[in-house]
Amino acid sequence: MTDVTLDPRLIEDTHPLTELPLCQLRLMDDTRYPWLVLIPRRPGAVEVFDLSEDDQQQLWHEAGLLGRALKETLGGDKLNIATLGNLVPQLHLHVVLRREGDDAWPGPVWGQGQADPYDLDGLAAMRDRLLAIVDGIDALRGS
């Protein structure tokens, strides 16, 4: 798998969690939502169509597995999956668990209010919880 240099804004706004078969998995630094970011390790990828067909399928596979596990484990009302890239052109996919009544409900999370960053204890607890969720997804292990 190819190492890819991350856009500085992705580094600034997220925390690393683990490596998946295609993507680096990161946690958005905002306690208001369970919010994952998948970054395919493919140099120069800006749009989903920049990936091979196999990589496109793998990206959606990883997002779907993670989204289902988040919703089932953490509870939520809706899962938002999106690529934007208006400010950060490097291809990355947001997987956000939404709950009725959250800070942005029913609108999109982007551009709504101020992020509430994790403190060290909160980050450690969320990282442990998310890694346990990822470890429990058989299809993401050992691929």
Please describe the structure with a list of short key phrases separated by commas or semicolons:
alpha+beta; 3 helices; 5 strands; 31% helix; 20% strand; globular
What is the strand and helix layout of this fold?
Blueprint: H1 8-13, E1 14-19, E2 23-28, E3 35-40, H2 53-74, E4 78-82, E5 93-98, H3 120-135
Antiparallel strand pairs: 1-2, 2-3, 3-5, 4-5
3D architecture notes:
The model has no long low-confidence stretch (mean pLDDT about 95). The chain has one domain (about 10-100, about 115-135): HIT family, subunit A (2-Layer Sandwich), CATH 3.30.428. The chain has a 5-stranded antiparallel beta sheet with strand order 1-2-3-5-4. The chain has 3 helices and 5 strands. The chain is about 30% helix and about 20% strand. It has helices spanning about 10-15, 55-75, 120-135; strands spanning about 15-20, 25-30, 35-40, 80, 95-100.
